[in-house]
């Protein structure tokens, strides 16, 4: 979501979600937001035990970059304590405030008061005790096979002029197996994500604090309805099931054309989704696939999303020479989203001006940005002073 900020038109706000923190300096310099929020997931990367020590250097370099030199206030929250399995989420929330933005405050969840934001602060230890945020890891029984992983949310609350709103960084559960995702519609993974998202919504709208408009953006891991999509994609194909030896468990599914020498069109394994023609995910930005994107439907009264007009944000190739290609590991999907409460939409948007003031898109369309690629960007329509 985006727009060119101008004082007479209102403050510019840039919201970015990036799995593992892709570089975004060009985006900052081109949009020049007054308030920049960057939500990262998987801080430290997949091999976080070996890589977490490098996060501090990355943050220092980011804060000293030319792109952020005019942002004289910052709040950086990094969940780095991977030894605390009961609390570790690997979430990183970065907030940068431009020197021209004078009237901004942050909420203290203990004192239940707002405080003026001064200077730059980086917090990476015992986030649970920080009164400037609320952090939670999902209950253990939410996790598939009750196995701990880095999933949860971090909430901060801000007052910008006359607006008060929450920003929530979120990371939901992924599809561990393409074969399991194929078994039912909706999949067991989709059901678990629905439960976890409901948990977050209930927490941020309960009676402990005043209810305010909220934005939730991060890696929702939303996937297409695998069973329905594959049945449509391979409607004229025949399916071959390959099982393992003694256990007789399904090892792979092979879909072949009925004619044309029985050409393989799709091979599905636990971590393989090899479809013969990736163009289907890019043509018209993949919008023909949106009918199978259903995970937000149960929350239609609580969450709103702007129209999607960009290709699936995951799983892009991590090969630096193939920035536009998808990996053959998962079915491409819009995992990375920005969602908002109805009150947030009413606060920031006038329907007649929405198309002119807002861009909802990804960045780095032609370059390697890691396996996730999206940036929501936003400019409110209301004048502030």
UniProtKB/TrEMBL annotation:
GO biological process: phosphatidylinositol dephosphorylation
UniProt-listed Enzyme Commission number(s): 3.1.3.56
GO molecular function: inositol-polyphosphate 5-phosphatase activity
InterPro entries: Endo/exonu/phosph_ase_sf, INPP5A, IPPc
Top EC class, one word: hydrolase
Domain Inositol polyphosphate-related phosphatase, chain residue ranges per copy: 9-384
Family (UniProt): Belongs to the inositol 1,4,5-trisphosphate 5-phosphatase type I family.
Designated name of the protein: inositol-polyphosphate 5-phosphatase
Species the sequence originates in: Oryzias sinensis
């Amino acid at each position: 979501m985006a727009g060119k900020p101008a004082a007479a038109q209102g403050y510019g706000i840039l919201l970015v979600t990036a799995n593992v923190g892709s570089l975004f300096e060009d985006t900052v310099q081109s949009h020049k937001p007054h308030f920049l929020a960057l939500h990262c997931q998987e801080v430290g990367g997949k091999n976080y035990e070996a890589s977490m020590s490098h996060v501090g250097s990355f943050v220092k370099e980011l804060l000293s970059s030319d792109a952020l030199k005019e942002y004289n206030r910052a709040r950086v929250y990094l969940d780095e304590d991977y030894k605390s399995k009961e609390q570790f989420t690997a979430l990183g929330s970065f907030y940068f405030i431009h020197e021209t933005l004078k009237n901004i405050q942050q909420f203290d969840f203990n004192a239940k008061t707002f405080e003026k934001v001064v200077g730059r602060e980086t917090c990476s230890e015992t986030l649970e005790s920080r009164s400037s945020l609320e952090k939670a890891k999902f209950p253990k029984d939410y996790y598939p096979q009750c196995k701990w992983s880095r999933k949860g949310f971090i909430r901060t609350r801000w007052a910008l002029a006359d607006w008060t709103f929450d920003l929530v960084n979120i990371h939901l559960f992924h599809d561990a197996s393409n074969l399991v995702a194929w078994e039912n519609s909706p999949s067991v993974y989709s059901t678990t994500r629905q439960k976890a998202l409901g948990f977050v919504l209930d927490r941020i709208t309960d009676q402990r604090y005043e209810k305010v408009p909220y934005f939730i953006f991060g890696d929702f891991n939303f996937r297409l309805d695998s069973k329905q999509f594959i049945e449509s994609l391979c409607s004229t194909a025949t399916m071959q099931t390959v099982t393992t030896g003694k256990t007789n468990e399904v090892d792979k599914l092979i879909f072949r054309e009925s004619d044309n020498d029985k050409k393989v069109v799709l091979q599905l394994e636990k971590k393989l989704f090899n479809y013969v023609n990736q163009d289907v995910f890019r043509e018209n930005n993949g919008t023909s696939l949106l009918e199978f994107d259903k995970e937000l439907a149960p929350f239609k009264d609580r969450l709103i999303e702007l129209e999607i007009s960009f290709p699936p944000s995951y799983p892009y190739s991590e090969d630096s020479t193939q920035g536009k290609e998808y990996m053959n590991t998962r079915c491409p999907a819009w995992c990375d989203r920005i969602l908002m409460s109805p009150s947030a939409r009413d606060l920031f948007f006038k329907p007649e001006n929405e198309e002119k003031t807002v861009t909802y898109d990804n960045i780095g369309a032609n370059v390697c940005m890691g396996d996730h690629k999206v940036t929501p960007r936003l400019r409110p329509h209301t004048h502030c002073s």
